[in-house]
Amino acid sequence: MYLIQLTLDITKSARHLSSFIGSRALEDDSLLIKTVLTETFSGALVRPWAVHSRHGPLLTIVGYSDEGAEALNARRALALPSLQAAVGEALSVEMPPLKDGDAFRFNVRLIPTVRITPTGKRRHGERDAFLVAAEATGPDGGLARGLVYERYLKSKLGGADVTSCRLDGFRLVRFTRPKKDGRAQITMPEAILTGTLKVTDATTCTSCIRAGIGRQRVYGYGMVRLQPVKLGG
Question: How far is CA 56 from the centre of its chain?
Fold first, then answer.
């Protein structure tokens, strides 16, 4: 598994896609970036991914891939010139193998939703995990949103013991997503979680991190970033 880094110009990306998708879709950066990355590398080779930083129109994208920079850049070299102008060459490092007992700091931006099947009068479809839990416990349950999302993360991240977790950000985000008869506008919860974890099953943990956590992983969510645990004070 490789950690990939590349620069993407969001303005040039929108210019490339303007003749292919509607103007409303161009307002959704997650859809735009996902589409441009897929076209540039002729497939979903960098997933999950995340926006690491942004300076004006230039975004630094990081992600995981089974292919290193040499293979990715060979595919990029065959993309349309407008795509190559929008997406810079990839850099990569091979991720060190995880070992049982390893401890890390982590951060992840995810969409903590669950799919509820229709049963009686209960609201169904894709729903915020916090709202589902709050309905189950009732108005006096005293649930904390951060605690619900921590449980959500633990249920998805196999092979690791999440030893601490903090909700560092929450907002409702409106997306444009493709559907059979056009495009739909949907609103979903976005949560940023940070904390520490300890690897208990390296194979399972690696597989979960490689796949990403939660919903909307192809759109820039669910990438678990690992960093060494800080030493000393």
Answer: 21
Q: What is the pTM of this model?
A: 0.88
Judge residue 144's burial from the number of C-beta atoms within 10 Å of its C-beta, 0-12 exposed, 13-18 middle, 19 or more buried.
exposed
Closest CA relative to residue 91, chosen from 71, 111, 114, 109: 71
Summarised one tens digit per residue, pLDDT across range 152-184 is 999 999 999 999 999 999 999 988 776 666 667
Reading the block at residue 217, the tokens are 């992983």
- Cα distance between residue 180 and residue 209, in whole Å: 30
Cis geometry, peptide bond prior to residue 112 (ω within 30 degrees of 0): no
Domains of the chain: total: 2
> Would 184 be classed as within a structural domain?
yes
Residue type, 58: L
Domain of residue 67: give its range.
2-94
